[in-house]
Amino acid sequence: MELRCITSNNQKVLNEARYTFYQDTKNTEFQLLCVFPQFKYQEILGFGGAITEACAATLNKMPESVRQEIIQLYFGKEGNQYNICRTHINSCDFALSNYCYIEDGDTSLETFSIERDKKTILPYIKTAKDVSGGRLIVMASPWSPPGFMKTTGTMNHGGQLLPQYYQLWADYLVKVIKCFKDEGVEVSLLSVQNEPNAVQRWDSCTYTAEQERDFIKNYLGPALKRSGLSEIKLLVWDHNKERCFERADTILSDSEAASFVSGVAVHWYTGDHFEQLSLIKERYPDALLVFSEGCLEHGVKQDQVMAAEKYAHDIIGNLAHGLAAFIDWNIVLNENGGPNHAENFCDAPVICNTKEGTYEVKLPYYYLGHFSRFIPRGSRRIAVSSYTDKLEVVGFETPEAERVLVVLNRTDASVPYIIRENGMLCEIMIEPHSIQSAIYKI
């Protein structure tokens, strides 16, 4: 019985080696990773990244051949095989400026138009969908309502949605979804608000847990239902994990609000807090947990090993505690880590030099591929025990009954391990600062 082992490290490759299982006749006790496929947990929805106006603006400055190469790198069969994409409703910081879909003060939505997105973001999402073979799931998130609907009168610097505009904003979101669908982009996941606990210098809007709950059950949920959009999976929170359980509990403990909610979206910017995902799943087993945003902040990073390992550590920890989907932030940015109308520059797995028409595929891209390439939609997490904390590991059974173990070594030394399942052993060594995907079928 053979095992495929794909390894990535700072060489930016996906090297494959083959290993053979043998019978555990010696009752081997040490260096084991024990696999228990009879214990099955959450089903995987997929892996992907965001296509923002910044992504579109960056790609538009590149030669057509480069644009196609980058989309293939992410969504193609020979690439990372992404099958989820997130985008923004109205502008976000990774837009060229603040914008919304109506003129200021329009309470009838008569001036509603998504023309700007039709020229920039939506064509790339449609191309990604085609390249993915039609498997692409789209998530949409608002960063801010139009300024006149808020207590601050502006899209930036936080503020809250004014109560008199709750219904208008719910109708606005429904209209966005319908217009996107008319353009060939069907939204399947919708979050109520991006980062509702953050006052940012860019597009932002805050909700208390009670406000988000009441907006869902009295306005947004009924508006989606009336419009025949009940199949859309509504996600709450869409912010960092350190408060995700409390927010989820406030909303999902209300049966009326919970009837409209499918799950919880989280970010990574305040640390691991993996245990809170487990708490949500313990109290609300049917809740869909989606990681909707994470990136390396403060410009383009040079330490690619650090960046890649941050991704892998977070993904493994999230998956091991109940996560069903992981969505990276911008799939591509320019040489400055933008454009960004608030100068909130960040890193991305692919960075384009828009002056020279070239691009760099960075190490995080390859680490992300260990999940998106080898853990297909419909896979189920299975139980794995490890002999050492030097290895971070998570395991899955695919729809084809293959086992996939993703193993991360962030230490400065090589670490041996032996996969054990059903009395069979397979010995492997993982080098320092490497990630491996071990794939086999019993």
Strand order of the largest sheet: 2-1-21-18-17-16-4-19-20-3
Cα-atom Rg, whole angstroms?
Answer: 22 Å
- General shape: globular
CATH-defined topology of the largest domain = TIM Barrel
- For the record, the CATH architecture of the largest domain stands as Alpha-Beta Barrel
| Assembly form of the protein | single chain
Structural domain tally = 2
Low-confidence stretches: none
**Separation, N- and C-terminal Cα atoms:** 7 Å
CATH superfamily of the largest domain: Glycosidases
Instruction: Decide which structural class fits the backbone.
Output: alpha/beta
DSSP E strands, number: 21
- Mean pLDDT across every amino acid position: 98
How much helical structure, as a percent, in the residues? 25-40%
How many alpha or pi helices?
A: 11
Proportion of beta-strand residues: 25-35%
CATH class of the largest domain reads: Alpha Beta
The major beta sheet can be summarized as:
10 strands, mixed
Structure characterization notes:
It is a single chain. This protein has 442 residues and is an alpha/beta fold. The longest helix is centred in the middle third of the chain and has 18 residues, at 209-226. It is built from eleven helices and 21 strands. Helices cover 27% and strands 29% of the residues. The protein has a ten-stranded mixed sheet. It folds into two domains: 2-42 and 381-440, Golgi alpha-mannosidase II (Immunoglobulin-like), CATH 2.60.40.1180; 45-374, Alpha-Beta Barrel (TIM Barrel), CATH 3.20.20. The model has no long low-confidence stretch (mean pLDDT 98).
